[in-house]
């Protein structure tokens, strides 16, 4: 059985205790460290080998360093570490910032235990996870935004397939194998999508896929 090392950052003792109780029921999860702010998490990651940490679960609002800053620093300094935000807040601008900063997942604090475990397993297996509540709030905002309407771009069914797989962090060769196409063809689709969507990198493609409801 695969085992995973987790860090939890939350300044609410009752919620933290609840998470610890959940993880105590599952042997495959080990809690390496708990913190009440993001600053202490960064200090821990800077001192200890980041490869020993698989996932950081963080609240959004914390003193000293919040979840947004924590996620950004983790992705800049320790990109191999996955991140999951668990929060009562659903501010669309904060959701957008986290997506831009490559957060791996975002669920509401009132989510059921099963959804939390599904989110964690999905992220640890290499895909992103956003709860339906979070996705709906963000997509409704984008749909009703004039900017979003101006950016409506028609993609072919095949382009959507490739974009969806890119957003799930598959390599060009993996996508080629899944769709039974050549790696060269997938690279061509990737370049076309970058130009068509007006983005510069994989993060931009992933953001568009999430905004469009493809993930």
Fraction of residues in helix: 40-55%
Spatially, the strands of the biggest sheet line up as 2-1-3-4-5-6
The helix count comes to 11
Overall radius of gyration: 18 Å
- The dominant shape is globular
Uncertain segments are none
Task: Give the class from helix and strand content and strand pairing.
Answer: alpha/beta
Oligomer: single chain
Strand content: 5-15%
The biggest sheet, with number of strands, parallel, antiparallel or mixed sense and barrel status, is: 6 strands, parallel
N/C terminus separation: 28 Å
Q: Tally the beta strands.
A: 6
How would you spell out the order of helices and strands?
Answer: EHEHEHEHEHEHHHHHH
Mean pLDDT: 88
Structure description:
The protein is α/β, with parallel strands linked by helices. 53% of the residues lie in helices and 13% in strands. It has 11 helices and 6 strands. The chain has a 6-stranded parallel β-sheet with strand order 2-1-3-4-5-6, sandwiched between helices. Helix 5 (113-124) links the parallel strand 5 and strand 6 (129-130). Helix 2 (38-47) runs parallel beside helix 3 (67-77), helix 8 packs across helix 11 (202-211) and helix 9 crosses helix 10. The mean pLDDT is 88.
Briefly characterize the structure.
This protein is α/β, with parallel strands linked by helices and 215 residues long.
SSE map:
Layout: E1 4-9, H1 13-24, E2 29-35, H2 38-47, E3 55-58, H3 67-77, E4 82-87, H4 92-100, E5 105-108, H5 113-124, E6 129-130, H6 132-143, H7 146-150, H8 157-167, H9 172-179, H10 183-197, H11 202-211
Parallel strand pairs: 1-2, 1-3, 3-4, 4-5, 5-6
Helix pairs in contact: 2-3, 8-10, 8-11, 9-10
